[in-house]
Amino acid sequence: MRATAWLSVLLASAAWVASPAQAVPNPSRNVLWAALQGCILAKKATGRMFPCLSVDLGDKDRPGAAVLRAPGAATHLVVMPTDDVSGIEAPQLQRSAGNAYWRAALAARPLVTEALKGRLPLDRVGMAVNSAGGRSQDQLHIHVDCIEPRVRTALLRHGQAVRDNWTTFPIALQGRRFFAMRVRAADVDGFNPFAALTHLPGKSTDLRAVGIAVFSTARDDPAPGFIVLANRASGSFAGELLLDHTCAEASQASTQ
């Protein structure tokens, strides 16, 4: 997310700025982390969570996660660890923490449909994580918002070609080619998308170059669940480009 967009959140959060354990050279990449500290401070001090929508502090067996609405956005949410986790490449995501944050993102999706007052079903809400070069903040944040309409059309047409292991998605999306894999409904709760990225085809193991997006399968898909799309870019890639922060489909539905 753009650092300038988070400045209003920062100003409204805490009167002090906490730095993550490993500070980054550019303080503008730390704005989201500072806003998160405001949420945690409010939760501990008053039981409220402003500016976050929810804060789960976790416990010794389970990492915590918070949900924050992007400034000025009705539906665009980010789900982030309450611990210091730099991004998609963070080693701790290969363990159980990766699954915990995945489940936190799944649980946040109804907040999008609630904001739209039911004008869009839950299966049209997607999740995405940007690559290291495609993000502006160095605190892991999973974007949750409406699916970009052309992406949804492509998934409806070609989704049934996606298998349980990584293969190339049949067509380009937003001008890029993707690897795709299916997560069946029975496996969703135990899935770790970050660990799955280590099995992408090719020799590169640098997850900093990878961006991902996750969408529900079509309602008539014979193997329901989710489809994970991953792009390994030589430069940078923002997985959230496969989302639509304007929720155009919901707007169209309200006028019909």
UniProtKB/TrEMBL annotation:
Signal peptide stretch: 1-23
Keywords: Cell membrane, Hydrolase, Lipid biosynthesis, Lipid metabolism, Membrane, Phospholipid biosynthesis, Phospholipid metabolism, Signal, Transmembrane, Transmembrane helix
Compartment annotation: Cell membrane
Record EC number: 3.6.1.26
Pathway terms, separated by semicolons: Phospholipid metabolism; CDP-diacylglycerol degradation; phosphatidate from CDP-diacylglycerol: step 1/1; Lipid metabolism
SUPFAM superfamilies: HIT-like (SSF54197)
Gene Ontology CC annotation, any one: plasma membrane
GO biological-process terms attached to the record: CDP-diacylglycerol catabolic process; phospholipid biosynthetic process
Membrane topology per record: Single-pass membrane protein
Gene Ontology MF annotations: CDP-diacylglycerol diphosphatase activity
Gene3D superfamilies hit by this protein: HIT family - CDH-like
InterPro entries, alphabetized: CDP-diacylglyc_Pase, HIT-like_sf
The reaction(s) this protein catalyses: a CDP-1,2-diacyl-sn-glycerol + H2O = a 1,2-diacyl-sn-glycero-3-phosphate + CMP + 2 H(+)
Major subcellular location class: membrane
UniProt keyword ATP-binding, yes or no: no
Family per record: Belongs to the Cdh family.
Protein name per UniProt: CDP-diacylglycerol pyrophosphatase
